[in-house]
Amino acid sequence: MSATQIDAGTAAPQTFVIPTPVATRSLGASLLTSEAEKPIRKNSPRIADVTASTAVLSLEESLFDNAANLKIAFAAIAMHLSPDWRRVIFKQLDRLLDSASWEEDSALIAFPPFITFLRFVIYAAPTRFPSLGVSPKGHILAAWLCPPQQIAVEFLEADKAVATFSIQTARSREVIAWRGHVADLKDFIQRNGLGDCVGN
């Protein structure tokens, strides 16, 4: 600019088994041809071209592997989400990990924060889709905008999250900071009158 305890009054406890990332085959893996095995002459004009294409390929491999691991984990619990949620999450993962729009300050998505985000979506059951981003540390960022109010959440590892709530009162605009377990985030949102912002 990127399960745990549930409120007994809203949903029955469920347990989800989410797989750890698995190794994926690199896009760049290929067999050497006899032509490629020939020694390159010193001062060959193709050395710079080979170096540049290898660097680009490494980025594409990293992005592909990152997206593949996240989608494999997501597929294991996708049945608990609506088709619309599945489609939106896949689409936003592809957008965040698109090599064509990659910038120097972009970051790969860390696996634990992504799982924390999925657990929040399953247990809080928001009906409005957030805009997703990635922090420099690889944490998933989610924003729900409902002017003049808004919710911004950074999902961390170990089912933790930090959030800021921008609320318009009769007298002024207030910003509330929150940090805690994602199982408590939905209740905090509702207590501050922002349930409609996420669609609860």
Give an account of the 3D structure.
The structure is a single chain. Residues 1-19, 22-36 and 47-51 have low confidence and may be disordered. This protein is α+β, with helices and mostly antiparallel strands. The radius of gyration is 21 Å and the shape is globular. The chain has a 5-stranded antiparallel beta sheet. The chain contains 6 helices and 5 strands. The protein has helices at 34-37, 47-77, 83-96, 111-124, 182-191, 195-198; strands at residues 131-134, 140-146, 149-155, 160-168, 173-181. It has one domain.
What's a quick, concise take on this entry?
The protein has helices at residues 34-37, 47-77, 83-96, 111-124, 182-191, 195-198; strands at 131-134, 140-146, 149-155, 160-168, 173-181. By secondary structure, it is of the alpha+beta class.
